[in-house]
């Protein structure tokens, strides 16, 4: 899977979390499990995404959330009908 596809899948997982009442931080192990990825590999992607400003994560990269920029970038990447 390409880096862009990994990022879109992570943003999809974090976006889906917004439907929870109230939304919670998403643990990296949860994301890794849903993506069938090893945690160190996921953490590299998360670091890149945090640098882009599309997610926020804690210093240990254990808990994550999508940012407004992340939502906008995610929506822009979706195919237009």
Number of strands: 3
Largest sheet: 3 strands, antiparallel
> What radius of gyration results from the CA coordinates?
12 Å
What is the SS-derived class?
A: mainly alpha
Q: Give the rounded overall mean pLDDT.
A: 94
The CATH homologous superfamily is named Winged helix-like DNA-binding domain superfamily/Winged helix DNA-binding domain
Strand order of the largest sheet: 1-3-2
Distance between the termini: 24 Å
Classify the helix fraction into a percent range: 55-70%
Q: What is the succession of H and E elements?
A: HEHHEEH
**Uncertain residue segments:** none
The tally of domains stands at 1
Shape verdict: globular
Can you describe what's shown?
The chain has 81 residues and is mainly α. It has one domain: Orthogonal Bundle (Arc Repressor Mutant, subunit A). 58% of the residues lie in helices and 11% in strands. The chain has helices at 3-17, 28-35, 39-52, 68-77; strands at residues 26-27, 55-57, 63-66. A three-stranded antiparallel beta sheet has the order 1-3-2. Strand 2 and strand 3 (63-66) form a beta hairpin. The longest helix is centred in the N-terminal third of the chain and has 15 residues, at 3-17. The relative contact order is 0.21. The mean pLDDT is 94.
